[in-house]
Amino acid sequence: MKLILSLLIMTIAFSCCKSFSLGNNRIDYSKFENQVNQQQCFTSSGSYPTGYSTSYVTLSFNGNYPTSNGVQQSSFLESGYLDIDFVGGQLFVDFLLDDGNTKTKGKFWGFSGNSTQYVSVNVNETDYCFEQPLITSVPNFNGLKYVSDFELGTVQCDMFEQNNLDGNFTNQILLVDKTDCSLISGSTININSPSGYTLSNFYYYTPSADQTFFQLPSICLNPPQPSRSKLNSLLAKLPKIIQNLPF
């Protein structure tokens, strides 16, 4: 476990650290007609996708995450499927969260139109779905800043930065494939104390939303109201990916 965490820290530190020289990564710029350090993706608002869907794996060591008690640190492994519709303001996540003590499998729907979210989870073989005001927003491309070129393996990437996430406590670096502008990887670093890191990798990226996933199941159409203590325990089971969505 210590080895895995050490490798995670080394990987993210390499990606995020501002002191290393991007020019030493030996990118083969000839693949892009010698356009050295020229941004290929998201050069205008018209080049943004209308939505996307992707599988993801997120690993966090002491990463910043907002809670009802302010920003706190969390270590966990989460995997799942993410579907975002920027035009309709809709968000869906099918997730499996492992915090080292418990594993939680669930689904999340967020709708900016009525500022409502739904979470369906299974606890002790019992299905729950609860409705509450939307605590996150469907992301946009505001604040996305091009940094430089980067190479991940043999994939030529645009590197972007988003600053001041989670109440100005977190910076985020994103890697996007230059050839089709698909999201590849994202990492965050705490800029407060204690230090912490999060790494997310994205797979099977599709540059459009799948509308079928925004249909609520029957249990969420008339959800039973859990007790306050039960609701508080369920709220702790929200997918972590929604707090640091790349865009």
TrEMBL record:
Position of the signal peptide: 1-19
Lineage, highest ranks first: Eukaryota, Amoebozoa, Evosea, Eumycetozoa, Dictyostelia
Keyword Signal: yes
InterPro entries attached to this UniProt entry: DDB_G0292248 (IPR040310)
Domain of life: Eukaryota
Source organism of the structure: Dictyostelium firmibasis
Keywords per UniProt: Signal
Name of the protein this chain belongs to: Uncharacterized protein
One Pfam short name: Ependymin_amoebozoa
